[in-house]
Amino acid sequence: MPVPVPVTARGGGASRTDGCTHVRASRVTISTDRLTAINIDDVNNIVMVEPGAAWATGDGDNRPRRL
């Protein structure tokens, strides 16, 4: 029978919760810190942000657009 393994997704590590980490062994952390793309659709006023992108980067890119 398979044994369940706790899995945690972790972004850039600097958020309100200061990132997610495990305190015990035998856990899996999926790091998304390299997923940093920010795609801006000016026509539809949509910003798509990958989970590892920094707030400062997104804010700076969007400030002139008022998004």
Description:
- By secondary structure, this protein is an alpha+beta fold.
- The protein has one domain (7-65).
- Helix content is 12%, strand content 24%.
- The protein is built from 1 helix and 4 strands.
- The protein has one helix at residues 55-62; strands spanning 7-10, 28-31, 38-41, 46-49.
- The strands form 2 sheets. The protein has a two-stranded parallel ribbon.
- A hairpin with a 4-residue loop joins strand 3 and strand 4.
- It is elongated.
- The mean pLDDT is 75.
Percentage of helical residues? 10-25%
The strand line-up of the biggest sheet is: 1-2
Largest sheet: 2 strands, parallel
The number of helical segments is 1
What's the number of extended β-strand segments? 4
Structural class: alpha+beta
Overall, the morphology is: elongated
Radius of gyration: 16 Å
Whole-number tally of structural domains? 1
| Beta content | 15-25%
Q: Low-confidence runs (pLDDT<50, min 5 residues)?
A: none
In whole angstroms, how far apart are the ends? 50 Å
Order of SSEs: EEEEH
Mean pLDDT over the residues: 75
Summarize the structure.
It contains one helix and four strands, in the order E-E-E-E-H. The chain has 67 residues and is of the alpha+beta class.
